[in-house]
Amino acid sequence: MIVTAVEPRKKNLSALYIDGEYAMKLSTHTLLENRINPGTELDDEGLCELVKLSDLHRAKEKALWLISYRDHSSKELFDKLCRDFCEEAASAALLRMQELGLINDEAFAERYAKELHLKHQSPSSIRYKLIQKGIDKETADSIVDKLEIDPVAEIEALIEKKYAGKLSDEKGLRRTVAALQRAGYHYGDIKAVISRFTEDYYD
Question: What domain range includes position 159?
Fold first, then answer.
């Protein structure tokens, strides 16, 4: 097979033409790095290797872009990369980000847990969301324990911030209790706090 043309395209890609026909788009960086020009001869093995190198380069670029946008856990980044690239390229790109110190699950989990705490999320809710992000249970438990969250204080803060005006009737009370339970707080704590805001409480 003879490369007959290499034409630049958008997103740092170039169209590769082989034997006079369009073949595929590959990373421009990969083609330049491997000195692929019109007249270059390729066999099937060489072309497959170019595709792998192109996917790896593009996966790394995508990983860097995603990380620049916001923090990611390893699982989160890997899953997103797999939407566009094969698992091999996604794994290699993830490993490179870890080697560069750009992906660190424990540091990510600590930052994410603090963000959720600032939003008055319950310990169980924070733990659940960390595990959803791919953080192992032991690490999630340790990080949540370090936060030393006082559920009663968090419920009070949530009520003052969002629900204080909804405690004047039975319907509002029930909705407030349901919302706080969905947030992971225990019924006993919720009832104790609400009783401080109103003398009337409906079971």
Answer: 151-197
Q: Is 66 within 8 Å of 80 (Cβ atoms)?
A: yes
Residue type, 58: R
pTM for the whole structure:
0.75
Q: For residues 176 and 132, state if they share a domain.
A: no
CB atoms within 10 A of CB 161: 10
Do 118 and 170 belong together in one domain?
no
DSSP E strand boundaries for the chain = 3-8, 13-18, 21-27
H or E element, residue 193: helix 187-197
Domain membership flag for residue 116:
yes
117-139: pLDDT as tens digits: 988 889 999 999 999 999 999 99
